[in-house]
Specification:
Elements (H helix, E strand, L loop, with lengths): L13 E3 L10 E6 L10 H14 L7 E5 L3 H13 L2 E7 L4 H9 L3 E5 L4 H14 L4 E2 L7 H17 L6 E5 L4 H13 L4 E7 L27 E5 L1 H15 L5 H14 L6 E6 L18
Parallel strand pairs: 2-10, 3-4, 3-6, 4-5, 7-8, 7-10, 8-9
Antiparallel strand pairs: 1-2
Length: 298
């Protein structure tokens, strides 16, 4: 029977790195979330949040939805809203890449830009002010349990089956923390020995999709006890690994995925006979204007 876009959210490839992993007995696997319809891991929670809210009767087609975003969630929500008949308003810092803004607009979303100095914290505050003024409904990816649920029911089971249950380490960048929370919960139920590794930026690094939140803005879905280890990555590490993924593995992705790979390699350096899975969050085409791919002679 014919399928719609929603049928193609998830079930993304899990591929083995052939060159970057080096001479080791470990297997490093990349989960290619850029293969989702709107191009990122955020397709999963975006569809989950809208679909489940609609099923509960919290929202109905024609309603206005508001969300603060740094990019990928906004794109995924804009696609899902277009598909399901909602008006979408996205609030984001003005310094996010022009490609992401253009994709959101292509899906019909209205974009509200906040000053770059205020970062995502000000974008979140602005979205809440708009909601309080009656301008729309916030799904709130930072507090909505339907965010990690999408990964508990989708991302993690896919990885478990694709590795035949042999996964030993799971590495994920931390932004809203939905991916790592949902996957950690699933893997803990399957095998508590699987090490859950979160990735955060070093002080001063500006890596899209990876955040270290001030205490007041820490996502409510985040449960620190589910993360065994947090590794810090620098701007240089993330950008260099992003380039290496493209040039040595043929995987064209964004900078947060380079950061996740940098962390996965740190894990690999201290273990043996491991099966390490890291999340490739999105595709590189939405970062072309940042100059990361041209800065080293590309």
């Amino acid at each position: 029977m014919y399928k719609t876009i929603q049928n193609f959210v998830g079930h993304t490839p899990l591929v083995k790195l052939k060159r970057i992993s080096g001479d080791t007995g470990n297997v490093i696997l990349a989960k290619l979330e850029g293969n989702n319809p709107a191009g990122s891991v955020k397709d999963r929670p975006a569809f989950s949040m809208i679909m489940r809210a609609q099923q509960r009767g919290d929202i109905k087609p024609g309603d206005t939805l508001i969300e603060a975003t740094s990019g990928n969630t906004g794109i995924a929500l804009a696609m899902t809203a277009a598909m399901m008949g909602y008006r979408m308003i996205l609030v984001m810092p003005e310094n996010q890449s022009v490609e992401r803004r253009q994709v959101m607009s292509a899906f019909g979303a209205e974009i509200i830009l906040t000053p770059k100095e205020g970062s995502m914290e000000q974008a979140r505050d602005t979205a809440e002010q708009m909601r309080d003024a009656g301008q729309g409904i916030i799904l709130d990816q930072f507090a909505n349990p339907d965010n990690p649920l999408a990964h508990y029911e989708g991302t993690a089971p896919e990885i478990w089956h694709e590795t035949d249950g042999r996964i030993t380490h799971f590495v994920s960048s931390m932004g809203t923390t939905g991916t790592i929370m949902g996957c950690a919960r699933y893997f803990m139920e399957k095998n508590p020995e699987i090490e859950i590794v979160g990735v955060q930026p070093q002080e001063g690094a500006q890596i899209p999709g990876i955040r270290k939140w001030p205490e007041a803005y820490l996502p409510k879905i985040y449960k620190p006890e589910l993360v065994d280890r947090v590794l810090l990555v620098s701007q240089q590490e993330a950008e260099e690994m992003t380039l290496r993924l493209a040039r040595e593995e043929g995987i064209f992705t964004g900078i947060s995925s380079g950061g996740a790979l940098a962390a996965a390699l740190k894990v690999s350096a201290r273990v043996s006979d491991a099966v390490i899975v890291f999340i490739v969050c999105d595709r590189g085409d939405r970062y072309l204007s940042t100059g990361v791919f041209a800065s080293r002679g590309a």
